[in-house]
Amino acid sequence: MKKNISILFFLLMAFTNVIANNNNDTVYTYYDAARNKYLLNGNELKYTPVKASESSSGIYSGGTYASKVITEKESQELVQLFKAALANTKAQTGKNIKTNTAVEINVGNKKISFMLKAAAAINISLNNFLKQLIKN
């Protein structure tokens, strides 16, 4: 229990540093269940799909690479979702199973990584918003 509290304290301290720093210094990365990659850097959102040769089936492809500039409002909403995912430890898991997703938050040379449960509401919200933004 004390170890979990120490880890939580460390994450909260890192989270505080993330908030304190300008979001332009922060890069947010989300890997969906198929391991397609969404990367937010400032107002630029990039989608890097899994290639068929990289997929577990050898057949699945995540589609076409996309990069777009999103609005400041969209960027702020997305950052808030990433921060909510970090704060929601009940939505996180240590199990790297296919349906779970992965999140990385990089601030300078500091990196916070965690997995989200597939059925967690914050994961579903983050996934849906990213898909919506990259399609529009």
Helix/strand class: alpha+beta
Q: Profile the largest sheet.
A: 7 strands, antiparallel
Count all strands and give the number.
7
Question: What's the rounded overall pLDDT mean?
Answer: 86
- Contiguous helical run count: 3
The end-to-end span amounts to 45 Å
Lateral arrangement of strands in the main beta sheet: 4-3-2-1-6-7-5
Short characterization:
The protein has 136 residues and is of the alpha+beta class. The protein has three helices and seven strands, in the order αββββαβββα.
Question: What layout of secondary structure does this protein have?
Answer:
Blueprint: H1 2-20, E1 26-31, E2 37-41, E3 44-48, E4 66-69, H2 72-87, E5 92-93, E6 101-107, E7 110-116, H3 121-135
Antiparallel strand pairs: 1-2, 1-6, 2-3, 3-4, 5-7, 6-7
Helix pairs in contact: 2-3
Description:
With 136 residues, this protein is of the alpha+beta class. 37% of the residues lie in helices and 26% in strands. The protein contains three helices and seven strands; from the N terminus they run H-E-E-E-E-H-E-E-E-H. Helix 2 (72-87) runs antiparallel to helix 3 (121-135). It is globular.
Keywords:
136 residues; alpha+beta; 26% strand; 3 helices; globular; 7-stranded antiparallel sheet
